[in-house]
Amino acid sequence: MARWWRDWSRGPAAAATDRAAARLRAHRWPAPLLDVIARLREGGHRAFLVGGAVRDALLGRRAGARFDVSTDLTPEQVIERFDRVEPTGLRHGTVLVIEGELLVECTTFRREGRYSDARRPDAVLWTKDPLEDLDRRDLTVNAMAFDPSSGELLDPHHGALDLERRRLRAVGEPLERFREDALRPLRVARFAAALEMEPDEDLRAALAEVSREGSGVVTAAVAPERVRDELSGILAAPRPSTGLELLREAGLLELWLPELARCRGVSQNRFHAFDVYFHSLATCDAAPAHKPVVRWAALLHDIGKPDTRVERDGEGTFYNHQFVGAELAEALLERLRVPQALCQAVTHLVREHMFDYHDDWSDAALRRWLRRVGTDAVADLFDLRIADMLGNGLKQGFPTYLETMRERITRLLEESRALVVSDLAVDGHDVMRELGVPPGPVVRAKLEALLEEVLDRPGRNTREHLLARLRQWRAGSGGPA
Ligand code: ATP
Ligand code: MG
């Protein structure tokens, strides 16, 4: 039999694996990563790049600083071979090797034991067989192993073909795999959105079963931090809506983001083509992917609408929904253990998202608005407004008033006028000295009063003038303070 015929007739999966192997051999891996693998292989041991590193190289996605490697060495043996290591997950056989900027997560080949709680396997069982190690992995596209030293690619589940066809497929029986670890449905949603790939029919059918009674998938057992990480991954994807819709199909949106799920079917008014839920998704898709604050705010900006809806002349009105929404958003983000700073920034945008602007606003009015919103948040708030407009589904034009507003703000900032107390030409020490008051809330109140004056008349932010004002106040003259 001719070789070309033999190779070709092995079928499309084998051919895809061959193509993948060729590409991985030609890939330019970071030199320190190759050094780590070579070091692990010393003495006849085995080491493979696995998981995201292999998958993302084949997809031509930019690699992060973190690589996953599997090996037959025990964690203790890995530790012995490197100077800088952190035993991050010893119980699961994982050691983090640090080489300059590069982080290599080295995990001993293992097969998974029984799961009795859908969270962690009861026992971790080591193996010498890299194929067994691939069997425990969740998706075929994540279950390839490549040894850059030998150029060998292991692809027992035909992940290379699935990658080419942009198809997510479970390793083994999907519902069974979800029962072992209830984080997996969330991972499927995250990978579908992040990699822009479609779950195959079996995986989709299993997703639909996840929240059914008696499915055996203990969805509530997943720690909020892990849910948060997967949701953050979905929100960083090109189109988060694909991942969020999969979560909804799996009944997981109800479980993890009920405030959003209940927006479905809440109809709006002539300014919107979508209900509140689909508008939220469209807004989120339209927000800049590299700004997690704006993506979260876009997703949550209208979650106050179901509680505030009042029908007038057949149309929905949502008076004060931004304030109700900000409170709901804060509680939701805290529940998901989102870091405090991110939570505060998102909540702030939700609260301020209804801002209104008219050309006849005075400079003082604009300065007051800037002070409330904070100069750091203005760009994010504009991004949110643009996304909100794009998300109404009516193909209305770009909100052009933002352009005038932006120009005016730029000019105000260039004039470097005072917007916050710390911009004033005097400080708390001056207030205490001039007024003869001790430290305390009164000092802050006096500074705020000076700022109020300066917001109206920026030219008065000079040391000379402000000290004179303080002296007037001390003397009991010069108007309210
Ligand atoms: P990325 O790092 O880009 O998020 P990744 O695929 O590398 O993607 P990791 O969470 O770093 O994801 O995990 C590395 C590999 O470990 C995965 O590719 C997969 O093979 C396996 N894996 C991780 N979590 C699970 C899980 N819950 N169930 C089964 N396999 C998993
Ligand atoms: Mg990874």
UniProtKB/TrEMBL annotation:
Domain Poly A polymerase head: 47-169
Pfam families (UniProt xref): HD, PolyA_pol, PolyA_pol_RNAbd
InterPro entries hit by this protein: HD/PDEase_dom, HD_domain, HDIG_dom, NT_sf, PolA_pol_head_dom, PolyA_RNA-bd, tRNA_CCA-adding_enzyme
Domain HD stretches: 272-359
Single Gene Ontology MF annotation: nucleotide binding
SUPFAM superfamilies named among the record's database cross-references: Nucleotidyltransferase (SSF81301), Poly A polymerase C-terminal region-like (SSF81891)
GO-annotated biological processes: tRNA processing
Family stated for the protein in its record: Belongs to the tRNA nucleotidyltransferase/poly(A) polymerase family.
NCBIfam families membership: HDIG
Name the record gives this protein: CCA tRNA nucleotidyltransferase
